[in-house]
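Figure 2 data, in text form.
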Amino acid sequence: MNDDLLKRVLEHQYFDELVRKKTSFGWTLTVVMLAIYFGFILLVAFTPKTLGAALGGGVMTLGIPVGIAVILSAFLLTGVYVRRANREFDVLNAAIVEEVKS
């Protein structure tokens, strides 16, 4: 990318909006994932009997489905990010590229 093209991208009206929205959304999802993860770790550390409780009288404990839910939440949050990126961020990016190239 040459300097003139880079300068036009950086000065584009949508560029700051795109950066602000992507950064804000990324940090929001990061905080949500950290809260889920550390919430799970805090449960393990401070109330191990809660997660060690047997489910339905069998050998499976509550910790197993909760741990799986923690892992699935990461996939879910990734999907949420990809969905928004495809619908909103890519549209802004395409508008910037289209106008800068013309």
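Caption note: The radius of gyration is 21 Å.
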